Every structure is written in C-alpha cells, then in structure tokens.
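[09:14] KT: can someone run the structure on this one? pasting the chain below
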Amino acid sequence: MNRRVIAKILKHKHDDFVSSITDPEIRKLVDEHGMITGGSIVSLLLGERVNDYDYYFDDFTALVKIAGYFVDQFKGLNPEKEIPAILQVDVPSQRVSIKIKSAGVISEASDKDYQYFESRPEEEGMSYVEKVVSAADEENAEHIDDTKPKYRPIFMSSNAITLSGKVQLVIRFHGNPDEIHKNYDFIHCCNYWIAKTGQLTLNPAALESILAKQLTYQGSLYPVCSVIRMRKFLKMGWYINAGQILKMLFQISQLDLTNIAVLEEQLTGVDAAYFFQVIEYCKKRQEEDKEFKVTVPYLVSIIDKIFG
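[09:31] RB: done, structure tokens below
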C-alpha cells in the first residue's frame, strides 16, 4: 500500500474517531495533539489486517484531559460496576497512569461486579487477568455494539486505554515523534501520522526493516519488555539476528532486576497485565521482610506458580 493511500486511511479513521467525542474541548485536543504511530502503519504497508491504531499525544496537559475524559466515560458506561480506577497525574515527572486495584486491568467485558485478586484463590489470579484481556481483545477486534458508542473505552491498564473500534490511547508517554520513538525498541514501528497536519512520515530505516521483515533493535528504556515482545514478531514470520538479541541482553545486564521498582518498571509494557501478579507477590514479600530482594529461585518459583 502506498503513502497516499495509507495517509487517507489514517485520516478517515481519525476523523471517524474524533467525530464520536461528545466533549468539544476533548475533540479539539485530540485533533491538535494526536498522532498515530506503531504497528498499524506497518500493517498497512504490508497489506495486513490492522489490530489497533495507537494514539500518542504531544502535550502533557492535553494528555491528562483526554485520559480523564475516557476514564470518566468508562465509569459512566458501566454504572453497575464498582470500578476502582483512578487517574494518577505526577506533574513534576509529567507522568500519567491509571491505578486499578488490584488486578491492574479492567474491561467492559469482565465480571459484572469487579472482583479483586484478594477475594480470589491465588491460583485464579492469572486466569482472571487472561480472561479480562482476551475478552477485551475479542470485543475490540470483532464486535461493535450498535447500541453503544462506536469508540468507547472497553479496557484499561496503567499504560493505555483501549477503545472499541480498534483505537488505543497510550498514556504512558507523550511528546513529539522523536521523543515518543526514544521509547520504542524496534525501528520498524517508527513511522507516524500527525493528526493536525495530516502528514505521514515514513522512516527509511523502518521501511528497510519492514521490507526484509527483520527486527532491528535501536535500544530501549525497557529491554526486558523488548525480549518478551520479540516472541510476537517471530510468530508473525519476522527474523532477528544474534547481534540484535545481544543488544537487548547487554542493556538488561545493566539493570538491577532484584530491585522491585526496577522490575515493575521493566514489566510495565504491552504485556504488563500478565506480569501484574508477579509484581504483587514480590511486593507482598517485601512488606513482610524489608530486606527482601528478588532472587532467581524466588522469581522462578512464583512464575511457575502463576504461569504453570
């Protein structure tokens, strides 16, 4: 698919999404500060099915207002649920996240009455998260309920708000495209479309990577997530050479993963929900013993317990 056609598709998707926002201020903020980047452009270039359109925003204040709007909308559309979701805004560090106690994720398709991990047997924690995530994925990919808003929040984690209609609002990072892509691990995802101008920018290095279907690791703040994400691309027929893997391993070697805060930060990525309970076990153990640090035997034991 060529540049002109892709830009037209993204513009149509954006206009359709923005027109569904009922608050004029939020509609304007998305229009002026939004960008689409990541896997959707890769899929369009390859003529493949788009899983979702990832939105990022270049302004912190706009991001806070947009995230707040959709968190409130989720609660308003699901009044029967007691939803423990709180938008957390750290102004000094300019970080936005959603605190959801205690599963770390919540979905429109999850249990009618939200259930905490604390109320479930330990062995059910992982299956609950998997159920919530898979149900949201199915809702997002296949089903649009005509009786509800076309683009409505159906799934929330600390990092992102997933809407029906294949739109995902990433709240973990904000900034211009260069700043956003500093947090990206693989170069092929670094193409982007700017809502305000309608301009599609195709990165030559990204295009080369896509053409060869070869993963090129450009460094990341979250190399642990990169190793985990690599599995997805290999299943899709991509190739990665040993040198790229070594880059990730070397970056990981510089991290102190025995520090629970560092481990949590590294696992807070696309697959964060699946590791939520791992972190909770570690935190609980540290509450019992202030001197506790994560060790290989301990991590192995809880991963085997949770993942089976």
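[09:33] KT: thanks! The two ends are 42 Å apart (CA to CA).
[09:34] RB: yep, looked fine to me
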